[in-house]
Specification:
Oligomer: single chain
Number of helices: 3
Largest sheet: 6 strands, antiparallel
Strand content: 25-35%
Structural class: alpha+beta
Distance between the termini: 54 Å
Shape: elongated
Helix content: 25-40%
Length: 140
C-alpha cells in the first residue's frame, strides 16, 4: 500500500512540474494535425500571395517531389491546378499547414498506406512566390 501511495505522489509531482514548465521546445513539430482543414472548393480562397507570379509543386506522401507544376501568373491559377490534382487523387479535404504572403503549403488529411503505392501517392502541394531564392522552400 505504501508503494502505491509513493507512486501516486510521484505522478502528482511530475504532473505539477509539467504544468509549471509548459510545453517543450519543438513540440509543435510533433503535431501532425497542425493546420486548418478546408474543402477543395475553398482552396482558392486561402491565397494571401496576391497577384504575383508563383511556382508550385506537388509532393508525395513520402515528402519527395511528385510533380513540378511550374510557374503560374497568379496563386489562384496554381491553386486551381492543385485542386484538380487533389480531385483526381480523390482527396476532398486538405490541411493548410502554412499560409503567408510568401508561401502556401497544403497536405492531405489522411495518410493512405494501402497497397504497393504506400508513400508514392499525392500527399500535398507547396506554392511560393517567384524570386529572391524562395524556390528552395519547395524542396525542404
Amino acid at each position: 500500500m505504501g508503494e502505491l501511495v509513493a507512486l501516486l505522489v510521484l505522478l502528482a509531482v511530475g504532473g505539477i512540474i509539467r504544468l509549471l514548465m509548459g510545453p517543450t521546445p519543438g513540440e509543435q513539430l510533433i503535431d501532425t494535425n497542425k493546420g486548418d482543414v478546408i474543402s477543395l472548393n475553398d482552396l482558392t480562397n486561402i491565397s494571401t500571395l496576391g497577384n504575383n507570379a508563383v511556382h508550385a509543386v506537388l509532393v508525395r506522401q513520402s515528402g519527395n517531389i511528385y510533380r513540378d507544376l511550374g510557374t503560374f501568373v497568379s496563386a489562384e491559377a496554381a491553386l486551381a491546378e492543385i485542386a484538380k490534382s487533389f480531385r483526381r487523387a480523390k482527396v476532398d479535404e486538405v490541411r493548410v499547414t502554412h499560409a503567408d504572403e510568401n508561401a502556401i503549403a497544403v497536405y492531405r488529411c489522411v495518410y493512405s498506406d494501402i497497397g504497393r503505392a504506400e508513400g508514392k501517392k499525392l500527399g500535398g502541394a507547396r506554392i511560393v512566390r517567384v524570386g529572391e531564392d524562395r524556390e528552395r522552400w519547395l524542396t525542404v
